């Protein structure tokens, strides 16, 4: 990417973070509802810290840190960079104030603009790579922002809406169709010149087995049939860990669903809405997705199966740019990208020959390759330009606060 | 108290709450560092809720609630009034925003002003009593505000100062003198016409044993001798529960002390300061106070012993009005009131013949009469007009975030 | 007590411990159902350790320890004697085996017999005191044994009976009568030459207020009325800590009660029995006792009130020697001693002028004087010769596995 | 397997369980040191319950259960069979006593003998399959017995030896050699007529990448170099979950190692022994194995890589029949089977086309296919006749009480 286009992209991505925060009151920036989430203020500072740490500090001459304490406060998990503020206590940081965090962002932006306005030198490629990485990093945090805000607001008994002006998705879910997919040795993993995370590499051969893929996600209506058939009360449908979690936390339905006076509703970024049976079912753990698939006599797709079909499709769908911030019924359009991250049956593991990035940036992906599971395809809170067919998202099997959904597969 | 003086007192107390919050950033209002503390925003709303619930709702004609949700959100522990938001989750309430909470305060104030401007009727005494109770309640929360802000800021690794303009206490601690106090059947408990909480009544006879009382609090310097003598490593000095707590939480010194490079410092509302050996030792649990007394070959005073001597003294000392917000060396003045709440040896229990207030206001005191211990005398964050000789403060024996200190006694 | 009578008493008490264990299978000796209980095997060893540590080691010439590891394994809480095995892990000690523990007991008995067979010397009084203390200590552990066995067996879904041959108490509970008791300065605390624990001393004056005492304990039938009136659902009846505990643990009735198909039953040392409405209600926490008293418009007695009346009564009642091991209906007999320990309103605190025993034996009582509450009068699992009018038992207010009951009092 | 040989195998396997328990005292049968382990008594009963539930109940005419309670008490995790006693409370079951459990075993054995002595009917194959499954099940529990006994004894500060007569392994570890292994599409999974668990099926194609395999396990000496190089203090070497676990539990070395006065020792089933640097390093979590591999610049093998080489080797090695009960130095022999289960890099997941067994026996394997990792090759506490090249063992990545070790691999 050219130096100038990089600067444009930098401005675009950075300003979108601020745009996402516009509906927030100062009070909202401070909330961390559970350990897994972070306060919006922390996100805004951390993504700036990323540029300061990995771009400005090494590549800006005489870089003077905005605040030396920030190095400790806004490091997320880069042990090789130094010690860090404990994650569960991010919500206790009333200082630095939001005002000061915004000043920080502004200064970083000014310095980044300056860096990108100078004549490129020998370090040009490395800088461009790191900035690109930083922008993808910030886009990930934009998705986290929306996930976290949703959970923060849901933890408030008032159930406030993040935005009152969101349009509700319309349309219906057509009958599910099954695509026949042939097997054999094929190739997956990132290739070409564009950006990718290290965990998408190297491109390598995989053995595919003949299978069938559903062309759309499972809907609320379909999932309700599972619930009404006693799906949450039948241990034979569940992975052992899933059943233990269900019992421990009293799961009876997906996160954000509520049953009152016989009516189902669902908390969304637009507030509480009646459950729309045509929308894809959302905020499932892997355990719930897997139990549904077992109940339906099917299975979850493998990540390589999804990557191969994603590679055949245009990257189009209900992304964050649609400004619905909620999954939409499939309607007549294809439902391969967007709407919801589809759980796969694939544990998150290194590809054959995987090498993490050198240095601290190698902590980005590789060290999380245990006990998590891959999801594919992006969601209604993902930036479309952030996606690739080879993109591997990953969460623990019990987690539910991300925009996760369920697509079925079966052996041929 | 006359209707007009009550209005003046109302204005005075209410505006002091806002004055205390002036040094806070919006972000600071949201923090709840531990379950025991509450966010400043919550305090501001709760004390207003108290007036709305116990004064306006019953006595204002056609009272329309400011917000019906507030009844649930800002009830602290009045089960008889209805269900309430769980205490540990007060820090998650970004909504209502601070702005809206301040509007709430303002509307309550306007309605209270109106109530106090009308001609008093037959309910005059009851209203006056409840307003007086509400003002004492708010004064308690002003003390809690300062306790909680101190802990919130300490939980931040930046250790920000609540105020940069606080004067540091000066002076020295004179040698401790022992007052001989005779025994016999005497009377304690509230008497006279002034306001008192129900837990200070009825006035009743108690049997006093001959004893001696120290005329000042134990200092940091004296407590340091205990530490340096291995006080925190010698189980024989500790109550069994205290030793278990010490080991569980790794106590090695009072809360807010820190040892770095051989130098002791102490976190205060004015930020981190070098430890002043002449100041009274502060933020002790009962266990630490009791262990010190045992080490010194003395004991803690009983609450009746302190009440009797307090009743002989003017209510003067280092209170919140001194604006030090920190205990001061005794110097030449008497150190009976203010500076620090003195732990007593007395479990918090009902007086013979105790009757809680009728109705919900009866939940104010009586239901806490188990496993807590009485403290007496007020502190540097207590309003002087809030104090009485018969005033009984109480905390659990392991708690340390209040401004608690230690005075010795011994049997004659 | 003479040397010879002491030996007889030693034999009597020690053999009773073994008699109590006769109904146990080897497997039963190993169980620790909750942290508060200890495996029967551990009790048997610990009481022997007490004699070894406090009598044989200091007073037997050339005492060679049976096993040096036992000093660590069977120390309960005497920090001044050395480190100890963590209490929650007592149930993990399959070694030493029961066989070896019984050998240990036997060797200690032989050495104690030898000690008591030699000519008494100058240390005679100290030895006699320590042996007497050790025998009272063992009697306390006999009571704990029965408490713990009951809980251990209840934790087993088979609900096995400790003994199949226990007689069931018979008789009825007569109407409750109220005794008028006058006030004034009176004396309590141990006096005379007999043995007492340090916590019963010194004898001292107390101020008594006019009051009334119920002449029997509250029955299952009376307590059932409290339950059926919604007593476990009404927070206004409960101490704040009690209500929190009730909610945390889901209390709906006393420990060991069970409601199945509309019928109440109760687990006893003789197995599950239908609830006898005439028996005293048993295994209450202080919180439940206090809530009942509040519901009944009465209060719990103070410990001094009970001591004074106990001092007027013969030490007779349903003790462990009755071999019912369960409280019995009051019938026509007096119900001051035995059946159940009566909760008092008195926090467990030192008497004025209290001095713990010197040295390690001082850890016996004093260090527990915080957050616990006094119970009086002995129970159906207490040895009658272990009791005195001044005897102070104590437990935490939430504990329920001891044989605790409820007697009402009221102000005159 | 013929009916008669099956009976012989039944006798052989069943009697071996009892032989393994011979060194235990009755007390030892009761211990459950951590939730993951079970008391030996429970193991003995559960494996008998398996035969009763899955063989005798369906196939023995007029089967009368030995004790109807056992169905609840000794069900491990078969939800489809009915509710079960909670796993963490197995150690509380003093009843049924060991004596009764042994009677149970005996009766099951008599009934099984009778069943196997009758003329086989149409259900012959199903019965034979279930008995074979039951015997493999019991062999797994024999391994668990030794794992659990080791942990139980280690949890005792006396560190008793399970057996005093165990021979210590001798010999040295030769230099590690690397085997070149070619890639391509190959087949793994069970084939042929012999018994296998459902999780080893179906046999299927896998894509193998060129790689190298170490011909022996990593030794204590080699692992010590990792420790001395700061391996447990360098987060960059660890998976994120592993580093969190290390910090939470304070890991500084493998389980059962101890450093005292500069000397390393290791707890074994033969008691505490000096650390033998030539023995394979034992009782590693996946996290430790993975960190070592990263430190060494290598990786863990994939399960298919190990299966292919195991299929080429005779099933010989240091198994439970060697009666060392501890891993031995590789010496001159091959170290592919036995000694220690080798961690692989492969999450435990279903094979393509996997179908669990029908009915309750389908709960044996499939439901555990999340968050666990595969180990291969058997160990010094595994029965050699229990092993197959396709055998998949699995544990959570943080678990360490099994006999797990570490073999290196690298990409070619």
Short description:
4 copies of one chain form a homotetramer. Chain A is of the alpha+beta class and 412 residues long. Chain A has helices spanning 3-21, 40-59, 70-73, 98-117, 124-154, 220-228, 240-249, 286-295, 303-310, and strands at 178-181, 184-188, 204-208, 211-214, 257-260, 263-268, 271-274, 317-318, 337-338, 341-347, 373-376, 393-395, 404-405, 409-411.
Written description of the protein model:
Four copies of one chain form a homotetramer. Chain A has 412 residues and is an alpha+beta fold. The first copy, chain A, has two domains: 3-154, Four Helix Bundle (Hemerythrin (Met), subunit A) (Up-down Bundle); 178-411, paralog of FGE (formylglycine-generating enzyme) (Alpha-Beta Complex), CATH 3.90.1580. Chain A is built from nine helices and 14 strands. The first copy, chain A, has helices at 3-21, 40-59, 70-73, 98-117, 124-154, 220-228, 240-249, 286-295, 303-310; strands spanning 178-181, 184-188, 204-208, 211-214, 257-260, 263-268, 271-274, 317-318, 337-338, 341-347, 373-376, 393-395, 404-405, 409-411. A four-stranded mixed sheet of chain A has the order 12-11-10-13. In chain A, β6 (263-268) and β7 (271-274) form a beta hairpin. In chain A, α1 packs antiparallel against α4 (98-117), α2 packs parallel to α4 (98-117) and α2 packs antiparallel against α5. Chain A is globular. The two termini of chain A are 42 Å apart. The model of chain A has no long low-confidence stretch (mean pLDDT 96). Chains in contact: A-B, A-D, B-C, C-D. The A-D interface holds A 77, 79-80, 185, 204-207, 209, 235-236, 238-243, 286-287, 290, 345-347, 349-350, 352-353, 362-363, 367-371, 373, 397, 411 and D 77, 79-80, 185, 204-207, 209, 235-236, 238-243, 286-287, 290, 345-347, 349-350, 352-353, 362-363, 367-371, 373, 397, 411.
